[in-house]
Here is the input.
Amino acid sequence: MFAALTAGFFLGASLIIAIGSQNAFVLRQGLRGEHVLLICLTCALSDALLITAGVFGFGELVDHSPWIGPVARYGGAAFLFGYAMLAFRSAWRGAGALEAAERAAPSWKLALATCLALTWLNPHVYLDTLVLLGAASIRFDDFRSAFAIGAVCASFLFFFSLGYGARLLQPLFAKPVAWRVLDAIIGVVMLLIAASLVR
Here is the structure.
């Protein structure tokens, strides 16, 4: 059981740590200090649902439904392309410095909608959670629950560390140029992911 738990934790962590659209959004929210608890909780709970579904058989359904792949791939690519354009626009305008006292934060509804879209419209999320983690859990036949718990714990630890740990970088991001660089990097990452989906 302990082997399944630790395997789930480390495999889950290795899959989630790579920078992507969802992680970039969590980092941005953490740096701005906007709706951090809501965003971290939404990402972690979404991962928990997907991991559980993957470990307990949804991956097989995806394999037997060929239409799911293309729809998820092209829809996700279109969304990521649009988000990349917004990031590039923000980088061009350079209005991203931390000015929390001088401006109103976007509504929690908008932040939540963006977070849900970046999570659930990203085909890589399904590949990592439903397919890869689902397939890896098979070798822990009698301890799949422990494997899933380990992967879910890794997800919670990562998102909350990223969201709240971003505060340590706030002095750096008090400068507008730092936000421009971050937005440009986010835009490039989004475009690369979108291009990889189309290919």
